[in-house]
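Internal tracking record. Fields below are filled automatically when a chain is submitted to the structure queue. Please do not edit lines marked as system-generated. If the sequence contains nonstandard residues, flag them in the REMARKS field before resubmitting.
Queue: standard
Priority: normal
Entity type: single polypeptide chain
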Amino acid sequence: MHKIISFIFLFCLICVLAGCHKEEEQKQNSEGIDLSTIPGMVTHDVSMLVSDSGKIKYNAIAPVWYRYDLDKKNPYQYFPEGLVLNQIDQQKNIVGHIQADTAYNYENTDLWHLINNVKIYNVQGERFTTNDLYWDARNHKVYSDSFIHIERNYDILEGYGFTSNDNFSEYEIRQTTGIFEVKDLERKPQDSIEAETNSSLPTPNS
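SYSTEM-GENERATED OUTPUT FOLLOWS
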């Protein structure tokens, strides 16, 4: 009889422990979900205006826009199929242009990370090309440690490492590999930026 009672007690104890373990495991699985991998919003064919200091500065165009905001500590936006940012003045004229195959925007710091085929046109008609670029929109700074190719006037500048203001009017290239005068490179006039971006660069991956 004592053996039967002991066996029943032991069986009940095992069941209780097993139940507690399962409950704890379910709790851990629930709490272990990485909220940063779950989009809170998905939008297609995006065209939106981006402001800076209360003024409209950019028109953003993207085929797909993911917003990961369930993780409140590190919300971010993701543009997996490319992004175009047309810089506009107060009359809504295009005065600059940025595009990339992939882009991230980390909302807490307003830091953009542009990846692959990053192309930039500034108001002076200069053209910048790189594969990796960071834009600190809050502090109006742009930087990269990658290879950078710049066409300006009749010169081509190349180097590794780049810093600039976010208008790309003042910049510095590190580890410059060469400056070449290209006689047959026809410089685009400043007022051709709008025509080019409207005709040949309106969408990502073009």
